[in-house]
Amino acid sequence: MKISRILFLGAILASILGPWGCSQKPDSLSTLQPDAAKPEKKYEDLIIGYAQLGAESEWRAANTISIKETAEELGVELRFLDAQQKQENQIEAVRKFIIQKVDVIGISPIVETGWEEVFREAKAAGIPIIIVDRRAAVPEDLYVSYLGSDFLEEGRKAARVMAELVAGKANIVELVGTIGSAPANDRYTGFREILKNYPEMQIIDSQSGDFTRARGKEVMTAFLQKYGNKITAVYAHNDDMALGAIEAIEEYGLKPGEDIKIVSIDAARGAFEAMIAGKLNVTVECNPLLGPQFFELALKVVNGQPVPKWVPSIEGIFFPKDASEILPTRKY
Ligand code: GZL
To answer: Which CATH code for domain 43-149+288-314?
Structure first.
């Protein structure tokens, strides 16, 4: 089945289910019943299980560092498992944390679907789940809070800046993130929402590069072999795939950032370096430094304090003209 159909079905499912499998509002609060008899826990009392999805990108590496370094700083006992991009490994990790009776489980679900059973097991065991980064399409009673970005808005931002960059006229190839993941589904949808207003901006092909540089290069090479210089723009769902596309474009003999405009998402270090080199035109920020907010939420949850059902990340958009000045200030 064509990628675009899978993504389209995923986006339809996500839109029917709503952002988190229900009509979600950032300001709705969830509260575990506080136990007045128990003394309030401190960070050093916490045992946290974290099921990370993998190490596929600069973004993920920065996200993992943020979780681990923050746990260290706060004195939290962190049990961290890397699922190496396999959902079955993440599910197994959650089950391990349930057996270990950790205080809270944090998870960045690699894809949106397939979580209800194991989340129900955690709920039955009385262990709250905080979803971090990527969303899961589950009923909202199965997790206490979601900490992460508005991926739909990231896709809309990418389309708006691209429209300006190409003066409303482009043949676009799209490098899609991991199939079925919330960022891929929503960045796909958000971009198209805005593109509807620009009839002369056409997506001539769309293929998953799985958020990795190597796959991004492979897919872009195939696009260039198929369409050549008919391609005037690239929309990459993350910087790693954009950097792979830049390599492919140069090997093909064209100038990335000039002959082919490139808009990407994450705002990782590599993107700033590419913008300084004139090879990338825009990067839309997606903040991976979620460690402090995650542990703050976990402590509140354990102490029965109300937490928002969604804690959105704060993010900007970055352009080449500012890249040299900003790069030294970037933590990832
Ligand atoms: C987005 C995150 C995505 C990044 C990619 O929050 O899940 O996964 O955009 C990463 O770089 O692989």
So the answer is: 3.40.50.2300
